[in-house]
Amino acid sequence: MSTAMPLPPAVENYLRKILIERAHPLLLSFDAGWHLQSTQGDAGFYAIDITDPERGVRELQDLFIWLPLDSDQDIPFVELASGRSAHVHLIVDDSGFHVLLLDAEEARTRERTQQQLGNEVALADHQKSKAIGKLKDIRSELERQRENLEEANALKNALIATLSHEFRTP
Amino acid sequence: MTVQAHKVCMLGDFGVGKTSLVARLVRSTFSEKYLTTIGVKVDSKEVALPGREPLKLVIWDIAGRSALDALGMHYLRGAAALLLVADGMREGSLSSALNLLMQSRSLLPDALVALAVNKLDLVERWEVAPATLAELRRSLPVFETSALSGDGVEAAFADFAARLAS
Q1: What's the pLDDT score for residue B1?
Q2: Which CATH superfamily, name and number, covers B4-165?
């Protein structure tokens, strides 16, 4: 089968539809000075307030600070102010650039579930190792005190034995 | 007036308190619940400087790792400063922070660096010895911080702001 063969139009349309539905694309088009020119998609889905460019756009601007705006950029898994996670892309165009947001919430939740568990186990293991270390120290200290007591007891017994002998044989 | 903005990246192992430090600085909040960061969360804080224009720190709270992978390096691009974060109760997290610094140097040779040794409120349980911190202070600024109480947090970021402005 040739890999270059185009997909049947019905399949391509179906794929486009479900991918767009899942990705919730939001496209914000800017001129070179970060002035918003147009938007396509649901800005409300990402809780980005495009009616207040100072606030809404600033959040996006901060992502590309000190990065060249004359080449395409992508920043995966960005947690937005709303708490929602998005893959953020900057796509350069003749008249400026576009910022494209694609929903990453489902992938982030999946990843977080796995990592959270692993990290919590690692932190608990560290606590356990510390507790075991402390118990070993306590046990060593108790052992040392027991040896000291035994030594003192042996000395005491030897002393009593000597004294008893002396009492018996004045 | 446009405020000069600089990107600051938080780098450190998981569970050291990077997200909590940012929450303390930006929102004056603290949560006991540990929630691992996936990807990156970007916040900003305007810092007033005596006799100068204020400066904006754009703080990138990057998911905790003991080593930087390709994605971690990707997030660092354009950073002017790196705040390394270690947990005073986990000596291994200090080694991780220093390892992350060495890795990031290939991409950001000139970025400002400081170390925050976090969880100062639990200092009686620290594994990191004062002598170790004294030795580190000879090569980079070290701040003992508590995201819970706020101790040392503003100072760490104010130090960056002052150095970035000069």
Answers
A1: 56
A2: P-loop containing nucleotide triphosphate hydrolases (3.40.50.300)
